[in-house]
Amino acid sequence: MKTPGFWYAAAPSALGILLSPLGLIYGTATVLRQRQKAVDVGAPVICVGNLTAGGAGKTPVVIDIVRRLGAAGRLPHVISRGYGGAAGTVPRPVDPDMDRADEVGDEPLMIAKVAPVWVGGDRTHAARAAVDAGAGALVLDDGFQDPSLAKDLSIVVVDGRFGFGNGFLIPAGPLRESLRAGLARADALVVIGDDVWGVADAARRFGPKDLPVLTARVVPGPEIEQISKVLGVAFAGIGHPEKFFQTLRDHGCRLAGTKAFPDHHLFSSADLAALKRCAEALKGVLITTEKDAQRISAGDRAGIEVLTITLQWDDETALDRLLQTVKP
User: Fold this and answer.
1) pLDDT in tens, 45-101
2) Rounded distance, CA 220 to CA 311, Å?
3) Domain map of the chain by residue range?
4) DSSP helix/strand/coil, 92
């Protein structure tokens, strides 16, 4: 689905206020769910999650943490539900060369290029399978609201531009649970990009006094040099497509047009044919994200430029110190 615009309106909308009672029901269900007893699977668990629905920037954080754990010899494996994939309750490893996004999800395919990834509807089963396969540490991609696994470190990721939206709970707003309840369980907050919304202020107001707030920004890959030289037609099916479009503009790209799709949209050949006709009419080159590229079949990828991203921390040592608190 596309993110509702009123979720991020500057002032509470009539629709948001009207739906707020349903949000309270949603939040109460989340609180009750937290009473479930957590299971220790015999390996440290680092959870990278968020308090909102939609794209907050978790995947780059997961990949960065996995690389750091790998460099330290911790043998990290990643656990994911495989959003958008058809993975069932029986866990399975992801093969980035053979699997498709409609089978395992787009994010697991990206992460599997740097570390083993297990997908399955039951995170506990997937975690046990990873430990049996030799995992020395588990990184939970999402799952902050899932109480089934005992977590050694919980990191909440927030987009500095969008923050916590209008402050309402789903469906009245983007929050999965109240700020006070969520931040009370967090061990650290990571703000991606400039903190336009005031995430750090909200953390001080609603979270524990000593909650660490780390900051980082997304940096385009080397492809940006070539992409910035062409007239582009950008398209994306991510949580906030406009972030991608603005990133291109911020790095000197001229865009003749843009097209936003719902998050995790599986691109059909008809979708790509229409996009290519549009680009041809505008005399531009199609440009998309690495995440979107996972949902495009190999036969349709010709003529599409893909922009990768990495994460740049404002204080890398703060993250390293945080990870060092997780004992083997």
Assistant:
1) 999 999 999 778 899 999 999 999 999 999 999 999 887 665 666 899 999 999 999
2) 9
3) 45-218+312-324, 222-307
4) strand
The mean predicted confidence, pLDDT, of the chain is 94
- Do the beta carbons of residue 284 and residue 229 sit within 8 Å? no
Give strand pairing partners of 254. Answer: 231
* Residue pointed to by tokens 């430990």: 131
Contact partners, residue 295, CB within 8 Å, separation at least 6: 84, 101, 102, 106, 237, 264, 265, 266, 267
* Packing angle of the helix pair 316-324, 58-71 (nearest 10 deg): 70
192 with 243: CB under 8 angstroms?
no
The model's pTM is 0.93
Q: Characterize 264-288 residue by residue with b for buried, 16 or more Cβ atoms within 10 angstroms of its Cβ, and e for exposed.
A: bbbbeeebbeebbebbeeeebbbbb
Distance (Å) of CA 101 to CA 40, 85, 172, 254, 291: 30, 6, 30, 30, 10
Q: Residue 59 in contact with residue 291, Cβ under 8 Å?
A: yes
A 10 A CB-CB count for 190 gives 28
Structural tokens at position 15: 């629709």
The CA distance from 164 to 159, in Å, is 8
Instruction: Indicate the CATH number for domain 45-218+312-324.
Output: 3.40.50.300
Residue 136's identity, in one-letter code, is G
Cα dihedral sign for 243, 298, 120, 114? negative
Closest CA to 175 of 2, 11, 7, 4: 7
Q: Report residue 94 CA to chain centroid gap.
A: 18
- Single-letter amino acid, residue 325: T
